Amino acid sequence: MNFVSQNKSKHIEPVDEESVTQAHKAAYGDGDSSGLSAHALGAAAALQALKKFTSGGQSAGSGSQTQIISLAMAEASKLFDQSGGAGSGNKQDAVNGAAMTVMKLLVQSKFSGIIGGGNSGGLGGLMKLAQQFA
């Protein structure tokens, strides 16, 4: 979480949805993440965490941001171990990549509602994006 906090300027950088989709497909669809970098593993894990979060019926309350980031970090760690490592980078890089990918998505406009605000419908937007990558 310190990595995310210390790199706030990167939160507004756009997420390469094509790369995230391809990494997710390789890691979770094809089951072959051997050629992925640690950052790509983290991005794939972040998307998987978003899918788990939305399919689990989680509420979009004040703790949602922390819950999603924590879930993504845990998923990245698990994926890194299951895949026997990454093509480049280490486990911490994968965990950081997952956290940063989720944070970028949360900060970007399509996720502005997920981090709070009455009738913002953030969970609906999150589910829409997760389904987009299915």
UniProtKB/TrEMBL annotation:
Signal peptide: none annotated. Residues 1-58 form the DUF7721 domain. Residues 1-22 are annotated as: Disordered. It comes from the Eukaryota. PANTHER family: BETA-FLANKING PROTEIN (PTHR39477:SF1), CHROMOSOME 8, WHOLE GENOME SHOTGUN SEQUENCE (PTHR39477). This is DUF7721 domain-containing protein. It comes from Hypholoma sublateritium (strain FD-334 SS-4). The lineage of its organism: Eukaryota, Fungi, Dikarya, Basidiomycota, Agaricomycotina.
